[in-house]
Sequence to fold (332 residues):
Amino acid sequence: MHPPSEFRTALAHALQGPARHVERVSRGWRVAISNGCHVDAYARLVDEEWLELTAAAPPSPAGDDGDHRWQLLRLNARLNGCARVVLRPDGGLEIRGELFVADSADGPAFDTAPPADRDHIFTIDERVGAACVDLSSAYGSCRVLDPDAPSAIAEASDITPYETETLAQRCEQAGWHVGSRSPEGIDLVLDAGTASYRAHVGSDHASRLRVVVPLTDGREKSDASRMAIATILLGVGASVRTVKGVAFAHGRIEVAGIAAACERQPHAHATLDRALSALAVACGRVGREVAALQTDDLARAYLALRHPSVISDASLVNPDLVLEDTPCLQLP
Fold:
């Protein structure tokens, strides 16, 4: 195990594996990744525990409108791994991924991991390499974004009753109340303070953790509503680690919500707890707002007040609606 004093050196070495070039800069590293497509990324260690990888998203030929942002939610739903598209507070779109690297098999916090989890924890080199692949793949998918791509969540696979029960036990041991069980996984309730939300927990074909929380219903949404919802969901991905805004098929309808952006390693107890905790925080921040923004008038007023730069059509603005009448959309 690397002592804390050598942890940054170990991370720099791990970045050199998947990258063509690594340059030490203030507070991090510039990383040139070539894995199918070239990506200029920035890596930094946050709080001595999290490795954050970021790269500017490629520009859209059609512009950054509501339809483009909704397509990015669909793209996030199809992506596997830790990388996803987020919207920074300054309005810029970014590809981002985070790893809790402190509990890697050679990280400083490995000895604190439950013994049953240690066999499922990869080394820093393995995890950083996989994260760089995730970032490059997400960048390439964003660059050739297909507006006609189907709405889908990253494909799940049926899991055995034993795997379902193991997943349920880990959730309960971490303090999460488990509801129904099915061949696709388990349902549980996330308490976000002012409201509760249903989360579905399962695995994909590679046994990677998959957690999805729908936040909208199946009603038809106006252009303003889709723009507002996509803006707020892409934004929460920039403010809450390992959370991504998604839009996906749910039966015969399309819904939007949030999902865990989990790395490519089997789900250990701590990984599951961090993912659920992050989603609960995100639900508390945007759950009520997303539900309200399904109403066209509220969505138009929200965009005009909070994001006037995205309003190019004066007809989208309803001057008669007062946001103070809608508590969850009031300004701070």
